[in-house]
Structures are given as C-alpha cells and as structure tokens.
Design a protein that fits this description.
With 167 residues, this protein is mainly beta. Helix content is 3%, strand content 43%. It contains one helix and twelve strands. The strands form three sheets. It has a four-stranded antiparallel sheet with strand order 1-2-3-4, with no helix packed on it. A four-stranded antiparallel sheet has the order 5-6-7-8, with no helix packed on it. Strand 5 (68-73) and strand 6 (78-83) form a beta hairpin. The longest helix is centred in the N-terminal third of the chain and has 5 residues, at 14-18.
Amino acid sequence: VGLDGARTEIPFTSDLRGAGYRIVDVRWSPAGDRVAATVQRPSDGRGDIYLASRAAPQWVRATALDDAYAADWLTNDELLAHTTGGVLGILRAGTLNALRPLTGLPATSPILGDDGRIHFLSGAIQPARDPAVPFLSATRSTVWSVTVDGGDLRRETSLEQDEVRLD
C-alpha cells in the first residue's frame, strides 16, 4: 500500500511456488516504488533475487546464481547483494546477474550506514545453523566498511564475533 493509499498486489508465480520456492526477505527502494525479494528453496537453501515495481507488478529474476541475497537499496536503481560464496556487490535493476563486486574480502550482511558507507561482516560465511533461518551469518567475523564505489576499505571493529549478521 502506497502512502497515497493505493494498493498494488504482486502475485508470487505458480511456477516458483510449485517448485517449492518462498520469499524470505523483502527490501523496498528509497522511493517505495520498487521491491527486491530474496526467493529461496527451503529444501537446499538455494535462491536468487527477484525485483518488481508498483508500475510493473510482476516478479522478474535479477540473478540466476542460485546463491544471491538482497540487501539495502542504495538508490531506486541499485541495491546491495551478497552470496554464500562471500561476494558483496551492487546489483543494478534491469540487468540479469550484473553484480559489481565491492571488495575482495569474504563478506556478508551488508547495510547502508547513516554515514553513507556500506558496512558488512567479513569472516567465514555460512548459512545459519538452524535451517528454518533463511539468512547467512559469519563466524570469526569483524565489521568492515567501504564507500559505494568500493574505495576506502577499513576495518571498523577488532573483536571477532560468531554467527552474527547486521540488519
């Protein structure tokens, strides 16, 4: 439902539902007119990012990696994404698999900070121990940050944490 009260429904396609996929996370763009969803198969935890908009209310596959998770939007056209392989990048809407990596560090759980920097965990990336939890976590991890263009990489914490994620 938009701020104007107008309601838009974005149906989950029967082919995804029939294959056992489910939406496990939803992220709205800054303007609220686009949405990114992490769509995952509970049987093996594999999934991808799908995008939709109020103007075009249907899910469109944005990644075909079987390994992608949506995170915060940076603009109405770009969002953060990360993989179980530890890749952190920026995904541009409308381009399949156009994930531009931001750092060579193994990374997960990216968020856009109030300071305009992208904060993330770097450590051993793994699915949560509980299979009912559809998120990645990191062990022996510390918080790092980077600018949106991938520059000025810096470690923000030195204390290592296990099984944490930023949100």
